[in-house]
Amino acid sequence: MNLVWIFGLAKCTPFEKVYRSNVPGTCWDKNKLGKFQLFAAYYSAILDFVLAFIPWQILKDLTMKRREKVGVAVAMSLGAVAGATGIVKSVMVVHMTDPDITYSRVDLTIWTLAEPAVSIMAISIPVLYVYPVLQQCCSFPAR
To answer: Is the peptide bond before 14 cis (omega within 30 degrees of 0)?
Structure first.
């Protein structure tokens, strides 16, 4: 996704033409940039779903109680929520037609920033399972 931001800023020569359309200069083709943004959004969403379902394959052969397996797999699969935000973001990229980027892209920016935030929350949830275990086995101090 960083390339989307870099290409968005480096698309015009001189740089001032990015935010001032009346400045003389050249810019990259908007259709090609839009297609790249769409590809990046779909790729991110698909990758979130793929990575969310990998724990199920890994955990199915482990010798754990079924309840623990399902709990760990669900906790590790919360990245699917990030995939859902990626799909919403992809749909918004398709409907991005208004030339006034300060107004029309606010929702897209919110969903673009929500995707990594949701990913970070999903990554943090499995760690919460470790804290009670540390309290029981290692006399880890309680808060």
So the answer is: yes
Euclidean distance between CA atoms 58 and 49, whole angstroms: 15
Return the closest-CA partner of residue 122 out of 87, 68, 92, 83: 83
Low-confidence ranges of the chain (pLDDT < 50): none
At residue 136, the pLDDT reads 63
What pLDDT shows up at residue 56?
82
Token pair listed for 135:
């309290």
Q: Which letter does DSSP use for residue 26 in this model?
A: E
The beta strands (E) that lie in the chain are given as 12-13, 26-27
CB-CB contact of 13 with 25 (8 Å): yes
φ/ψ of 12, rounded to 5, equals -125, 150
Tokens of 142: 């309680």
Give dist(CA 89, CA 73) in Å, integer: 26
Alpha carbon distances (Å) from 55 to 93, 98, 132? 30, 41, 22
Give domain limits for the chain. Answer: 2-137
> What's residue 137's pLDDT?
63
Length of the chain: 143
